[in-house]
Structure formats: C-alpha cells, structure tokens
C-alpha cells in the first residue's frame, strides 16, 4: 500500500559537507528512505559552531590523531564496500563548507535539491575537488539541473537559514555528523542510518544480526 | 565443514568494564563469533591511560554533555532491542575497573573466562552493582564457576599484564572501547562488531542493508 507524502513518517537528516561519514549517508539515504517508506527532511548545518561549543577549534580527527587514522582507513574500506568512490587526499580538511551549505539550503527548496547535495559530496570526497570554490559549486548546480546564478541569488536571500539550522541542530542535541532525528530520538553516524530509518518507520531499531529466527545466522 | 581451533580465523576483542558500549558487545560476541566460525582473543584493557594520552582526565561522556546524553539514551534503546537488561544509574561512572580487569585476565586463562567477563558486565550494567568491590567480584567468580580466592591469587601473580594489554591496545591504535582487530584492521564500537567478525572470517565487511539482490530491501 502506497501512502501519500503527508501520511509518511518523517526523518530529519542533519548533514555537513565537510564530514566524511556524512558522505556515506548522503549518497544512500534517499534510496534507503524510499525502501522504508520514510520522507526526508534534509538539513545542512555547520559542525564548526557545534565543535566550538565542545571546546574544539577544528575537527576531532585532527585533534585526536589515533581517531583520525582510524577514520580515514574506516572510510576507505566502507566506501569500497558500498561501491562509492572515495579519495583520502581532499584539497583541504576540514573544508570551508559554508558556501556549499548555503547553496544546498536554496537547492533543497526544489526537487533537484538532493541531486545537488550528492553532486557536492561527490565533488568533495570522490573527486577531491575544492567545494569552497564557486566554480566547483556552479558545476555541481549544473550537474543537478539547476541554474548556478539563480541558485546563488536565492542562497543569498536565504543566508540567515544556515545559522538557524546550526542552532536548531545544537538545540536538538546534535554533536556530530551525520545525525538523524525521528520521533524525539537522535541517531549519530552513518552506521546508525538504518536504525534511524527503522525508528521513523516502525518505532523501533532495525534487528541486529543474530536477532532473527536463527540466533546464529550470518548476514 | 568444521575447522579445528588452530585453523579458524581470529579476532582480538579489546574491552573495558567501565564502557557501556563494550557491554553490548561482550554479552553477544561469543555467540556471534561462533556463528562466523571465528576464534576470539579476549583482551581486557584500561581506557584511563588511553584517554589520558588524548588529553582527557575522565570519560568523554562526562567531558562532552551532549555526547553523554546521547549515549545513555542510545544504550537504553539498543539494550532493549537486544533483550539485555540495562540500568542507567550505575553506582559510579566511570567505575574503577582495574580490579575486575585483573581478575578477568586470570579468568581468561581458563574456559570459564568469558562467563566471568559476562558476569562482571551484567553486575555493572544490568544490576548496577559496584564492580570495584571485591565482594561483588567474588560473586561474579562463583557465578562463572571459579573459586574467588584462587582467582584473586592468580590475578596478583599476573598483575603486570593489565598494563601490558593497555600499552598493546594503544600500539594497535585503539582509542576507545569496544574495539576489535583482525588482519591488520581495527574496528571501533559495538556497531562495528559484525563488520569485525565478517572481516576476520571473509576479509571484507558485512553487507549493508540494501546491498543484497534487491537494493531496496528492508532487513
């Protein structure tokens, strides 16, 4: 039975273009949400103010080297398993993602929004292009079927939104990216995307491996 | 085909009794390892020195309140989904887990070791008992079929081992608990236990939801 858009359960997807793990989620979330019958609210925000509130002046992956080494390797093997290209040599880390986030807010007023988000993530993490660069972002807009000049103009008009989103994320308890919110529950990390969708759709977590009929099943 | 113990792939399970998420892994890892045909090396270690090396004087869940709030709620819903009792009111957080870890090292010389580890985790997280208390630990030993006095004596003889394990963990790149290591790869968090087992058994990650024959499958 197909439910109308208005009836479908909703999931808020909090994302930040500078986040590696958000890339894994952003490239797959639309297909997975469709599979679960969940409508998505895409919410670009900035991690900078969130990290600053925790006393960090940059990415925790730079502040804590062991965690950083783990993340780059974990990203490489995870991206490969998901069939996503991933380059560990971005032109800057963390990138200044504010320009891309402002354009995304404007793009997400239109049906092309998710395609623009994926184009920016692919430019940043699959192609190692500099998504702080206006020319790169214009290419992403065209790739998504949007007019770069019109998009930039609308982004200018919506400029305060990005700060509002970031403040809303912090008020919702978000402390990293990607995060997901449904039914008063917060989920953190690409590893919890499926749980978040399951919670939105059914009010409970996705079953763990070994939780089916056979407790010793293999996936 | 059943393989002999010597032929089976191995996974190192790094755990710390003070860690909430390690509880979720420790209670399930033996059954899941059996399902995957993987032999386990149980490695108790202390997070204190690991955190100190990152500049933290206590648990990051206390230093970063948003992360702490998330963790307690995430633990409660995850434990419930796994059918594990979990109390959010332990007598101390983080608990002084060194006495329990020293006894675990001695217990793990014997077949009763994993049962002792589970008894301590259950005392700490399901029953909110103080596992820094020698009487509580003696109860855990008896529950696992071990003689508390003999176990304490052996733990005394093996006392330097705990520091050696902790140093080995740091050398292996461990920065949190639970962690898993197999074939030169490190995995972090109860959410990655299945991936770690899959890597040990097959050299690749467990398939993600939506990665099977039908890209829109639901678990």
From TrEMBL, chains A, B:
Keywords noted in UniProt: Isomerase
Record-level Gene Ontology MF annotations: 2-hydroxychromene-2-carboxylate isomerase activity; glutathione peroxidase activity; glutathione transferase activity
InterPro entries: DSBA-like_thioredoxin_dom (IPR001853), GST_Kappa/NadH (IPR051924), HCCAis_GSTk (IPR014440), NahD-like (IPR044087), Thioredoxin-like_sf (IPR036249)
Gene3D superfamilies: Glutaredoxin (3.40.30.10)
DSBA-like thioredoxin domain boundaries: 11-195
Keyword Isomerase in record: yes
EC number assigned by the record: 5.99.1.4
Reaction equation(s) it catalyzes: 2-hydroxychromene-2-carboxylate = (3E)-4-(2-hydroxyphenyl)-2-oxobut-3-enoate
Name of the protein in question: 2-hydroxychromene-2-carboxylate isomerase
Biological processes per GO annotation: glutathione metabolic process; naphthalene catabolic process
Entry-linked CDD domains: DsbA_HCCA_Iso
Catalytic site positions: 19 (nucleophile)
Keyword match Hydrolase: no
Originating species: Rubrimonas cliftonensis
Family stated for the protein in its record: Belongs to the GST superfamily. NadH family.
Major enzyme class: isomerase
């Amino acid at each position: 039975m197909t439910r109308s858009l208005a009836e479908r359960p909703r999931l808020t997807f909090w994302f930040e273009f500078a986040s590696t793990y958000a890339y894994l989620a952003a490239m797959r979330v639309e297909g997975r949400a469709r599979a679960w019958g969940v409508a998505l609210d895409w919410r670009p925000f900035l991690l900078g103010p969130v990290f600053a509130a925790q006393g960090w002046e940059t990415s925790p992956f730079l502040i804590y080297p062991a965690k950083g080494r783990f993340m780059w390797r974990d990203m490489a093997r995870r991206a490969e398993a998901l069939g996503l290209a991933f380059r560990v040599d971005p032109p800057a880390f963390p990138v200044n993602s504010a320009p891309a986030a402002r354009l995304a807010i404007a793009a997400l007023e239109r049906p092309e929004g998710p395609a623009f988000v994926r184009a920016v993530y692919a430019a940043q993490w699959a192609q190692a292009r500099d998504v702080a660069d206006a020319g790169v972002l214009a290419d992403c807009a065209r790739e998504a079927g949007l007019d770069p000049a019109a998009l930039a103009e609308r982004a200018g008009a919506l400029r305060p939104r990005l700060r509002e989103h970031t403040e809303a994320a912090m008020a919702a308890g978000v402390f990293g990216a990607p995060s997901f919110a449904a039914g008063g529950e917060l989920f953190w990390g690409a590893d919890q995307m499926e749980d978040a969708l399951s919670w939105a759709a059914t009010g409970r977590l996705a079953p763990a491996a070994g939780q089916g009929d056979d407790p010793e099943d293999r996936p």
